[in-house]
Amino acid sequence: MRLKRNNIKPRKPQGARCKKPVLSPASSFEEYDEDFSEPCPTVTHSSQADVGSDAKNELLKPGAMVNSSPLPGPLRTGSPWVQVVGHAGNFRTGPDGKLLKKYCESEQRCLQKLMGDSLRPYVPSYYGVTRHDQQDYNTMDNLLAGFDSPCIMDCKMGTRTYLEDDLRKARESPQPRKDMYEKMVAVDPGAPHPEEHAQQAVLKTRYMQWRESLSSTDTLGFRIEGIQKANGTCNTNFKKTKCNEQVVQALEDFVDKSVPILRSYQKRLKEIRLVLENSDFFRAHEVVGSSLLFIHDRTGKAGVWMIDFGKTLPTPPPLTLDHRTPWVEGNREDGYLWGLDNFIDILTNILSVLLE
Ligand SMILES: Nc1ncnc2c1ncn2[C@@H]1O[C@H](COP(=O)(O)OP(=O)(O)OP(=O)(O)O)[C@@H](O)[C@H]1O
Ligand SMILES: O=P(O)(O)O[C@@H]1[C@H](O)[C@H](O)[C@@H](OP(=O)(O)O)[C@H](OP(=O)(O)O)[C@H]1O
């Protein structure tokens, strides 16, 4: 089940009980309407950002960049956390302010490897597995820690959002899904093929390909999944945000046309690109369905991190990827760097127009 909001909707104040999304019969989108059976741990604003001492001194400087602390820091009270997109019920916050994400073995393997890779400053620090109420969780940094009423954007990277193995499985034992048919029809009643209409179900790979073609995944190699603004409004209605102009408009709105914030993001993305191009981990992994999480706040602090490695898999040796070559089945390419190139170009263009 995924968190979905039909449109822009203010979030609940911090410290409120977690809201469980429920399927709305009218729209088939999910909304925050129902209490979880247990409350989230109460969250309070942390007085210090979760950054190194140099970065702490930068807190009030516009455009200051933040790195996630590479090592476990002292325990502190929890920082406020919000989930912009993704599966509902996958997360909880720990008493020490860390973020707990439902255990996924492939994600754990990636996070463990990433702690020893040059990419370490660009992913949430990983602290191992925590068991809670008979459920295992991967424990990681809450990247929102230290931000003051942050604006958050989740962008899913790459040109392919499903695994090559999913295609094989779909061929060998197809399992058409009714929920995905319903999500498809809710956006475009004409999208399903006649046979899909007949069985009122679609294969997941078909649904994922349709989502890619509807959005900028196909055309730009990334797509905006959701944006939460500082005032708490959250928009996840980007399924049809496809062309450059739509993406530019969403990005300009996200940063309120702030040149310092755009410059910070541009600098950080260029840094990430350079590190990705030289990372042993990245070279040897198919990175699918992973997001870049953009966070900034009114103090001018801004950061970008890679998150969600649930569908990031090692390539069979000696195969390595350049992440720019177009995908054909069998080459395992994911288009991640092509998408990042396009993202950086778009930010650069926005900046040059704003500075004209
Ligand atoms: N380390 C983190 N710090 C702060 N927020 C995070 C962190 N990891 C995830 N989030 C929040 O949770 C959301 C979902 O994260 P993620 O993509 O990992 O979940 P998921 O359920 O695996 O998503 P998907 O549906 O794409 O598989 C992000 O958009 C972000 O708002
Ligand atoms: O954004 P949408 O349109 O709601 O579609 C979902 C989205 O593509 C998720 O990435 C995917 O989870 P995974 O990335 O984990 O595959 C999920 O599959 P699921 O329903 O099988 O969880 C889809 O339903």
TrEMBL record:
Enumerate composition-biased segments (Basic residues). 1-20
Note the SUPFAM superfamilies from the entry.
Answer: SAICAR synthase-like
The region annotated as signal peptide is none
Its cellular-component GO annotations read: cytoplasm; nucleus
This chain belongs to which protein, by name? Kinase
Q: A Pfam family for this UniProt protein?
A: IPK
Question: GO molecular function terms here?
Answer: ATP binding; inositol hexakisphosphate kinase activity; inositol-1,4,5-trisphosphate 3-kinase activity
Q: Give the top-level enzyme category.
A: transferase
Q: Which GO terms describe its biological process?
A: inositol phosphate biosynthetic process; phosphatidylinositol phosphate biosynthetic process
The beginning of the lineage is: Eukaryota, Metazoa, Chordata, Craniata, Vertebrata
Q: Which family does it belong to?
A: Belongs to the inositol phosphokinase (IPK) family.
Reported EC number(s) for this entry are 2.7.-.-
Name the reaction it catalyses: 1D-myo-inositol 1,4,5-trisphosphate + ATP = 1D-myo-inositol 1,3,4,5-tetrakisphosphate + ADP + H(+)
Report if keyword Mitochondrion is assigned. no
Keywords noted in UniProt: ATP-binding, Kinase, Nucleotide-binding, Transferase
Flavoprotein found in the keyword field: no
Q: Where is this region: Disordered?
A: 1-51
